[in-house]
């Protein structure tokens, strides 16, 4: 019905705001406000920070030296000092080889990355960097050997009462340390060997009083810019816009809110929920948001805003449903912004009317496809939505002060993730169409200055605790270890969406993932072809055309983002929702008013048919535990029937033909003068697209509801079970349903463990009671238990315990620990290993044989640590 009513020809005046603003004179001091605000923003990254220095000494004070696990992260401390007494060398048996000190067990495959001091036939030999350095006979009298490694230099010397003599000076990195190892007899080792290392805790920084003052100054300035923007540019006189009813939109808002809540319980996890969970859970212990599982736990700067923002909420519970609450709240806010822009267009323009039901369906398609979890895209979409709403309101409502608010949203988005740059697009478009044209030069300069000051909010958010040097270290590590790609690698993102990826990433090809991306691109192409066919004032003109421009610019902007996975398309959800809704609602009018003939309409039918065939051809594949009980798993939905172009055209044509017959008999044909077969082609394309938009959300709810029901019927656990249990009380997730060989549950085993449980990131979100090992002070807390991901995702979990290729944070475990698998199975599940495997971690040495002391110092904001974004640092090539 909404589409039918859209066929009547109307004059679009979306580009002409029907309001006046009261012009105000500028106070002479106005340039000082934005300039001072920007100055504060520029100074913040360079302001000094408080840095923690961590000194690790071995053995513990007052105790003899015995081997001890000491897993450093990053792998190489900032400095290492080792002392070996000459008496330990001379006391060795003649002809024997003994390890006086080593940073790796001798049989470790990675020992070449460490340092060893070996006693061979009563002479000390230094071994590092794949070379041996004999140090010669022991000098007479009391003496000791000393090793000092720092920066790119390692020095060995011998000290005696007559002075110190340098024996070796070599260009080498500080050795990696996973343990302090000695084979010297424990009884006689007191004072014979010792070591001191400064752990690399470069990201454990906090603001100094000066930095706090600068941030306070910026906050005051930014608030002043917002107030100044509204006061300088005045208020509307009267409200000439059309009064709009609100009850129907309120009802749809309630339905959308209910749908978001249901999907929060029922919907799938995102691929990186466990990855981001590690960052959130380690924040309190380390004081910074780091890449917990890989990239040497490098800080996520600049993408840190969400971790700090949600920390208080996650103190309540780590239940999976609780971790979804922020994304669900963001979803409702995004809907209100989508609806808000649509209501602005209804109120102030004569653009085609977009039915709220169609808008809700388009929103559901893009929202549900992204998953509800901890990935940052929903919050990029939220910032983008705020930026878009303020741009539209500034243009149509006649008060450019709204653009300053949009600038704050766009600036904040830079602290969310790399795709946050998308929030700049609506802001820039809004400024271009608002400034200059109606403001004049002076007022345009004022507006640009205020908006630039607002966007500068990125600086205090990004550099809340760190300086520009920490940002450079973080960026270097994440680009090196994070598999970042150049701009021309963007094709891989589309390839991942359409096929040609490993089996464990086939979930990216699901029809729900493909639909919002491919359909919005198809509608963008059709609109671009239609728009130049008519004089100014065509259907897709003025503000009504902005979402299509935003989407085109957004697709181009993704070229600049470093990671190329299909999940990043979700950052375009705000644009895609508007493009799908506005395109389907307005194309009937556009076909009629722009006098589109058979070439354009049949071309549109061809494009839509091909795109929807590709969409429905995607396999019904899901990530991790959401595969449990899933009907039609890894198959084409409806047996591939919906992917058949013939079925789509015939089915859509039948519905479109019936609609055209109804139009003819009811006398509501409208102004479309094209022959019936031409009109049939256009309407068939719209029916195919609109039908898919309506069917997809229903199909998703049905699939996940059926999967949960299948699991419940067999008495097995499902993610939905944990989410429902989170509503009524405490739950330990999948651990409650995993039974060990002795009949106890995994929850009980975790509670009895002597230390934390390391859970592989593909599944960690479903084990809220498992305390993850702490990564802080440049050290790894030794885990007592290891929960491996199921075999299909084993490779991803293994990366966290491997130096190759992405700098696994728990790689040191492989050298100092062994794993003993404990029989366990998921209750009611046919495959005992479907949930993963449980292993007890056994260490070769005690884990508490060293002391740690943390002190604080002040460093300039530009201070950087030694680079670890290199092949030499891990001994592995770039990923």
UniProtKB/TrEMBL annotation:
<feature type="transmembrane region" description="Helical">
    <location>
        <begin position="445"/>
        <end position="464"/>
    </location>
</feature>
<feature type="transmembrane region" description="Helical">
    <location>
        <begin position="402"/>
        <end position="433"/>
    </location>
</feature>
<feature type="transmembrane region" description="Helical">
    <location>
        <begin position="543"/>
        <end position="560"/>
    </location>
</feature>
<feature type="transmembrane region" description="Helical">
    <location>
        <begin position="357"/>
        <end position="374"/>
    </location>
</feature>
<feature type="transmembrane region" description="Helical">
    <location>
        <begin position="212"/>
        <end position="234"/>
    </location>
</feature>
<feature type="transmembrane region" description="Helical">
    <location>
        <begin position="246"/>
        <end position="266"/>
    </location>
</feature>
<dbReference type="GO" id="GO:0052636">
    <property type="term" value="F:arabinosyltransferase activity"/>
</dbReference>
<feature type="transmembrane region" description="Helical">
    <location>
        <begin position="637"/>
        <end position="662"/>
    </location>
</feature>
<feature type="transmembrane region" description="Helical">
    <location>
        <begin position="566"/>
        <end position="587"/>
    </location>
</feature>
<dbReference type="InterPro" id="IPR040920">
    <property type="entry name" value="Arabino_trans_N"/>
</dbReference>
<feature type="domain" description="Arabinofuranosyltransferase central">
    <location>
        <begin position="206"/>
        <end position="658"/>
    </location>
</feature>
<dbReference type="InterPro" id="IPR007680">
    <property type="entry name" value="Arabino_trans_central"/>
</dbReference>
<keyword id="KW-1133">Transmembrane helix</keyword>
<feature type="transmembrane region" description="Helical">
    <location>
        <begin position="515"/>
        <end position="531"/>
    </location>
</feature>
<feature type="transmembrane region" description="Helical">
    <location>
        <begin position="599"/>
        <end position="617"/>
    </location>
</feature>
<dbReference type="GO" id="GO:0071766">
    <property type="term" value="P:Actinobacterium-type cell wall biogenesis"/>
</dbReference>
<feature type="domain" description="Arabinosyltransferas concanavalin like">
    <location>
        <begin position="51"/>
        <end position="202"/>
    </location>
</feature>
<dbReference type="InterPro" id="IPR027451">
    <property type="entry name" value="EmbABC_dom1"/>
</dbReference>
<feature type="transmembrane region" description="Helical">
    <location>
        <begin position="683"/>
        <end position="703"/>
    </location>
</feature>
<dbReference type="Pfam" id="PF04602">
    <property type="entry name" value="Arabinose_trans"/>
</dbReference>
<feature type="transmembrane region" description="Helical">
    <location>
        <begin position="325"/>
        <end position="345"/>
    </location>
</feature>
<feature type="region of interest" description="Disordered">
    <location>
        <begin position="1"/>
        <end position="23"/>
    </location>
</feature>
<dbReference type="Pfam" id="PF17689">
    <property type="entry name" value="Arabino_trans_N"/>
</dbReference>
<keyword id="KW-0812">Transmembrane</keyword>
<protein>
    <recommendedName>
        <fullName>Arabinosyltransferase</fullName>
    </recommendedName>
</protein>
<keyword id="KW-0472">Membrane</keyword>
């Amino acid at each position: 019905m909404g589409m039918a009513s859209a066929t009547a020809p109307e004059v679009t005046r979306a580009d002409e705001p029907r309001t006046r603003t009261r012009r105000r004179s500028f106070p002479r001091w106005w340039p000082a406000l934005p300039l001072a605000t920007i100055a504060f923003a520029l100074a913040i990254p360079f302001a000094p920070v408080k840095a923690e220095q961590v000194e690790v000494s071995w053995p513990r004070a007052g105790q003899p030296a015995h081997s001890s696990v000491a897993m450093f992260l990053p792998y190489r401390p900032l400095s290492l000092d080792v002392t070996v007494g000459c008496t330990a060398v001379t006391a060795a048996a003649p002809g024997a080889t003994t390890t006086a000190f080593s940073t790796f067990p001798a049989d470790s495959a990675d020992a070449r990355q460490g340092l060893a001091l070996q006693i061979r036939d009563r002479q000390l030999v230094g071994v590092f960097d794949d070379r041996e350095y004999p140090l010669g006979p022991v000098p007479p009298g009391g003496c000791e050997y000393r090793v000092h490694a720092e920066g790119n230099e390692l020095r060995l010397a011998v000290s005696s009462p007559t002075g110190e003599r340098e024996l070796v000076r070599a260009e080498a990195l500080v050795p990696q340390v996973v343990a302090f190892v000695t084979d010297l007899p424990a009884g006689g080792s007191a004072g014979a060997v010792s070591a001191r290392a400064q752990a690399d805790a470069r990201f454990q920084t906090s603001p100094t009083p000066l930095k706090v003052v600068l941030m306070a100054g910026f906050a005051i300035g930014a608030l002043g810019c917002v107030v100044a923007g509204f006061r300088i540019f005045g208020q509307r006189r009267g409200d000439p816009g059309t009064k709009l009813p609100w009850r129907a939109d309120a009802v749809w808002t309630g339905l959308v809110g209910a749908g978001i809540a249901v999907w929060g319980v029922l919907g799938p996890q995102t691929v990186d929920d466990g990855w981001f969970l590690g960052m959130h859970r380690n924040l309190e212990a380390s004081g910074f948001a780091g890449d917990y599982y890989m990239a040497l736990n490098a800080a996520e700067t600049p993408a840190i805003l969400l971790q700090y923002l949600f920390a208080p909420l996650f103190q309540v519970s780590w239940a999976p449903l609780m971790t979804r609450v922020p994304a669900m709240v963001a979803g409702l806010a995004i809907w209100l912004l989508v609806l808000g822009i649509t209501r602005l267009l209804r109120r102030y323009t004569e653009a085609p009317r977009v039915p709220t039901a169609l808008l809700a369906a388009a929103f559901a398609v893009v929202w549900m496809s992204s998953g509800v979890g901890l990935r940052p895209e929903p919050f990029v979409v939220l910032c983008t939505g705020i930026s878009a709403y303020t741009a539209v309101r500034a243009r149509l409502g006649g008060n450019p002060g709204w653009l300053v608010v949009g600038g704050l949203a766009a600036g904040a988005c830079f602290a969310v993730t790399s795709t946050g740059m998308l929030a700049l697009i609506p802001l820039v478009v809004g400024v271009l169409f608002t400034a200059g044209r109606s403001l004049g030069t002076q007022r345009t300069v004022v507006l640009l200055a205020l908006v630039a000051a607002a966007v500068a909010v990125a600086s205090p958010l990004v550099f809340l605790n760190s300086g520009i040097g920490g940002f450079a270290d973080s960026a270097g590590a994440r680009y090196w270890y994070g598999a970042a790609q150049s701009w021309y690698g963007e094709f891989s993102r589309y390839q991942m969406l359409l096929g040609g990826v490993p089996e464990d990433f086939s979930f990216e090809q699901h029809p729900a993932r493909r639909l919002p991306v491919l359909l919005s691109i198809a509608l963008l192409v059709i609109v671009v072809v239609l728009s130049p066919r008519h004089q100014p004032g065509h259907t897709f003109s003025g503000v009504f055309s902005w979402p299509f421009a935003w989407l085109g610019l957004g697709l181009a902007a993704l070229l600049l983002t470093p990671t190329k996975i299909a999940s990043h398309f979700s950052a375009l959800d705000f644009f895609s929702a508007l493009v799908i809704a506005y395109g389907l609602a307005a194309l009937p009018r556009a076909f009629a008013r722009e006098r589109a003939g058979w070439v354009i309409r049949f071309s549109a039918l061809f494009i839509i048919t091909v795109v929807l065939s590709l969409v429905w051809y995607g396999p019904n594949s899901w990530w991790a535990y959401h595969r449990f009980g899933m009907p039609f798993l890894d198959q084409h939905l409806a047996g591939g029937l919906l992917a058949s172009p013939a079925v789509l055209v015939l089915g859509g044509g039948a519905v479109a033909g019936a609609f055209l017959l109804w139009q003819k008999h009811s006398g509501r044909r409208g102004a479309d003068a094209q022959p019936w077969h031409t009109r049939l082609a256009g309407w068939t394309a719209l029916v195919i697209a609109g039908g898919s938009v309506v069917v997809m959300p229903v199909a998703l709810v049905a699939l996940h509801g059926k999967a949960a029901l299948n699991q419940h019927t067999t008495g097995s656990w499902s993610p939905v079970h944990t989410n429902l249990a989170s509503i009524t009380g405490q739950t330990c997730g999948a651990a409650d349903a995993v039974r060990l060989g002795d009949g106890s549950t995994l929850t009980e085993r975790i509670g009895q463990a002597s230390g934390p449980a390391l859970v592989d990131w593909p599944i960690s979100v479903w084990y809220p009671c498992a305390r993850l090992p702490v990564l802080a002070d440049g050290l790894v807390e030794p885990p007592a238990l290891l929960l491996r991901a199921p075999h299909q995702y084993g490779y991803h979990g293994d990366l966290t315990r491997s130096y190759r290729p992405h700098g696994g944070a728990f790689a040191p475990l492989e050298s100092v620990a062994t794993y003993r698998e404990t029989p366990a199975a998921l209750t009611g599940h046919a495959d005992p290993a479907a949930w993963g495997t449980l292993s007890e971690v056994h260490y070769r040495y005690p884990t508490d044989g060293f002391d740690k002391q943390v002190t604080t110092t002040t460093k300039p904001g530009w201070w950087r640590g030694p680079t670890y974004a290199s092949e030499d640092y891990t001994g592995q090539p770039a990923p």
